[in-house]
Amino acid sequence: MKENKYDQQAFFDKYSQMERSRKGLAGAGEWHVLKELLPGLPGIRMLDLGCGYGWHCIYAAEQGAASVVGIDPSRKMLQVAREKTHFPQVSYIQETMENVEFPPESFDLVFSSLALHYVEDYRGVVEKVWRFLRPGGSFLFSAEHPVFTAQGSQDWEYGPGGEIRHFPVDRYYIEGWREANFLGEKVVKYHRTLTTYLEELRRAGFQLERLVEPQPSQEMMESVPGMRDELRRPMMLIVSARKQGE
């Protein structure tokens, strides 16, 4: 397996200091929206694509999920996840979401948090998720918003005094590879339009249930420096879809 950026020690150390890394779901600005879109968790079989530290897997187990499988390509991220997890129904696999395989209809919920923008073959992943889900099962994911990924640098334009002027959007309809600056490191991400995110779901046979561009909670805007600037442009996209055929 190709080395994952999160397994590079310098990058991993920086990531571990982020608010969402230290505080878990309480430090994630979109969690107050995302959790409201989750289906009922007691008794379900859940797959988490790009599980990272395992926060969502742990939450699902706490809510009574029957089984939870977390997938992530990073050895270091999964090491932390396993240390934090104390539920026997949760397991972790080091693999990419593009390559992982399960029997058809293995899960009731496939979930992914801020990972799909690292995937080049979005269509292939959507098709896999369709196969993995039972009829009537849910696919819930968050990803970086196309407005945020379009230009590439993912940084504000600043004035001569260092003040924020605006957020640049460029090459929106030109999908594909972008080199972003994340935590002071160069990271490869993949930009796609909002149309692509939704049309690939429709093409595979999913029914769109909700589309949300989450804003930070009032509490986070009051307590986290710079968080109010997140109202100036969308950073994330949350999509909830259901596999038809129940």
From TrEMBL:
Keywords: Methyltransferase, S-adenosyl-L-methionine, Transferase. CDD domains: AdoMet_MTases. InterPro entries: Methyltransf_11, SAM-dependent_MTases_sf. Residues 47-141 form the Methyltransferase type domain. One of its GO terms (molecular function) is S-adenosylmethionine-dependent methyltransferase activity. Pfam families: Methyltransf_11. One of its GO terms (biological process) is methylation. PANTHER family: METHYLTRANSFERASE, UBIQUINONE BIOSYNTHESIS O-METHYLTRANSFERASE, MITOCHONDRIAL. This is Class I SAM-dependent methyltransferase. It comes from Candidatus Egerieimonas intestinavium.
